[in-house]
Amino acid sequence: MQDLAQRLRQLRRRHGLSQRELAKRSGVSNAMISLIENGRSNPSMGLMRRILEGIPVSMSEFFSETPIEERKVFFHHHELTQIGSGAISFLQVGSDLATRRLQLLYERYAPGADTGSSMLSHDAEEGGLILSGNLEVTVGESTRVLGPGEAFLFDSQTPHRFRNTGSKECVLVTACTPPSF
């Protein structure tokens, strides 16, 4: 039953569906989908078929997928995924974010590096902690230069921008939920 729960959760997330959206599409209650994904209910074949039609995926496709491997928990520096390089470098913890609700990044901003004059905006929340150097963070109408040990946390739908105004590289760790890349 646990394998079925993991398979359904992973498939739903891979298709970018919330439990509520899948419930609406399949005509099955949100509570029932939650119970199944948490391994607390063993659905009949008819119920599973209705749920999978909301994705849409056939029963044979669902059960023929390769079993879900255990998620990796620990990462060496060389196992971080490079998702951006140059004046701004992003190293991501983990590579498959389709089944994750959190994106964790190790970021480096060279002196003068800037996310651009156009403000960023996306559907998420994000936060970060400055490890070294300084970073100018603009969120909406507020701008502040943060140094080591200082942090930020905001709704990413608010237009924002990051810029290293210092003469030294800025290193920080950030988290974004849900993943934005």
Q: Beta fraction of the residues?
A: 25-35%
CATH architecture of the largest domain: Sandwich
Task: Determine the N-to-C terminus distance.
Answer: 32 Å
The CATH class name of the largest domain reads: Mainly Beta
Overall pLDDT: 88
CATH fold naming of the largest domain: Jelly Rolls
Tertiary shape? elongated
CATH superfamily of the largest domain: Jelly Rolls
Number of strands: 9
Radius of gyration: 20 Å
The low-confidence runs, each spanning 5 or more residues with pLDDT under 50, are none
The major beta sheet can be summarized as: 6 strands, antiparallel
Strand numbers in spatial order across the main sheet: 1-2-3-9-4-7
The residue fraction in helices comes out at 10-25%
* Helical segment count: 5
H/E topology pattern = HHHHHEEEEEEEEE
